[in-house]
Amino acid sequence: SIQVPHNELPRKNDYLCSFLMAGNNSEKLQDFMRDFIDKEYLDAVTDKKEWVWLAKIAGVTHEFKKLEEIKEKTTAFFCPI
Fold first, then answer.
1. Can you tell me the distance from the alpha carbon of 57 to that of 81, in angstroms, rounded to the nearest whole number?
2. How far, in Å, CA of 65 to CA of 6, rounded?
3. Nearest partner of 60 among 46, 32, 68, 22, judged by Cα
4. How buried is residue 8: exposed, middle or buried, by Cβ count under 10 Å (0-12/13-18/19+)?
5. Which of 2, 47, 70, 81 is the one with CA 20 to 30 A from 41?
């Protein structure tokens, strides 16, 4: 669990975003995102930029790949069977 320092409480959302997006916290970000991303959410994603962003979080290389391949690998990460 993540504890927000007392002096950061007024800006807790900013603190949480900064904490999770720090490069050394990639596993925490993945765990956080896996908690609320499900198949229904992914089915609703239509923007390629959002798929690329989700792929980065999932550790899926997106360069020179077709969107369908990005979707498939990213979905497998967030929604393993």
1. 19
2. 44
3. 68
4. middle
5. 2
Q: Residue holding tokens 């490069």?
A: 23
Question: Taking the model in full, what pTM does it have?
Answer: 0.76
Reported as a single tens digit per residue, the pLDDT across 19-33 is: 888 888 888 888 888
| Tokens at 42, concatenated | 């992914």
Q: Taking the CA atoms of the chain, what radius of gyration do you get in angstroms?
A: 14
Neighbours of 74 (CB within 10 A): 24
Tokens of 18: 């900064």
Percent of the chain with pLDDT over 70: 99
pLDDT in tens, 41-53: 999 999 999 999 9
What is the C-alpha to C-alpha distance for residues 26 and 59, in angstroms, rounded to an integer?
Answer: 9
